[in-house]
Structures are given as structure tokens and as C-alpha cells.
Amino acid sequence: MNAAMVSAPPATVGFFPLDDELGLLPGQLTPRLQEGLVRLSTHIPSFGKAVGEFAYWTQVDVRRTTAARLTEAAGTTAVALQTQAAEHILHTYPLPACAPDQVVLSVDGAMVPLVHGQWAEVRTLAIGEPCLTTTTDGQAEV
Predict the structure, then answer these.
(1) pLDDT tens digit string along 59-117?
(2) I need a labelling partner for 30 at 20 to 30 A (CA). Which of 82, 90, 129, 138 fits?
(3) Beta-bridge partner residues of 125
(4) Global pTM?
(5) Helix axes 64-92, 47-58, angle to 10 degrees
(6) Cα 78 from Cα 85, distance rounded (Å)
(7) Within 10 A of 39 (CB to CB), how many other CB atoms are there?
(8) Where are the chain's structural domains?
(9) CA-to-CA distance for 44 and 55, rounded, in angstroms?
(10) Would you tell me how many other CB atoms lie within 10 Å of the CB of residue 80?
């Protein structure tokens, strides 16, 4: 056999290092296209309609199942991040050791003058713990 007739080994599926450097995601869509597809899929109640709009605006055809898979994965990630943030808040800022059994709320509003003869309503809210006392004639008073 002639040395010029030797063929190269067959290509296999692999990972190209530049993909990681460029921040490319698995699959055929760029990160920007994946984000766009997920955003459309969260705003349009049907994955089928979402991929139709996606194809119209991007000239990229994807399957309904791809939109569903990517959107559900993004939702799972969002829930995990929110749960992690909530747990961090609860561990960093724990609830107070004791809280009042009752709380009193008082809401009021008033009109206040602004510049140039304008008026606006200001709303106030007062929050407090009720303190029960007895008057001199024996009546309960908050």
C-alpha cells in the first residue's frame, strides 16, 4: 500500500477546549439563543407557539421538546438559586428569639402640600405591640 493512500482515523464525538473558553453550552444553540428561547417559552403558554415565534425572529428552527427541556432546566436552576438565597438569609439573619403574641397596626392618610400648589396623599403605618393597662376606674385599656 502506498503511504499517500493511508487514511486518517475516523472522527469521534469529543469536547473542543475552545467551547469552554467561549462559554458555549451543550447543544447547537449559543447561550444567547438558549436564553431567548427560554424567555419566550416562559412568556408564551405553549412551547409549540414559542418555538414558532423563536424561529420567526432568529431564523433558527428548534423542536418543541428542546424548548420544554431548556425552559424546565432553567426553572429548576432558578428555584435552586432562590432556595439557596433564602437559606442564606435564614442562617445569616435568624428570626428573633421571641416575638410578640399580638401586634397592633394603625393606618392613616393625610393630604400634604407640595410645590407649585400641588397636593398629594401621604399614607402612614404604625406597628406596635399592645400594652394592656388598667385605668383608675378598673377599665382595661390598650
Answers:
(1) 999 999 999 999 999 999 999 999 999 999 999 998 777 888 888 899 999 999 999 99
(2) 82
(3) 107
(4) 0.54
(5) 100
(6) 11
(7) 14
(8) 15-92, 104-141
(9) 14
(10) 10
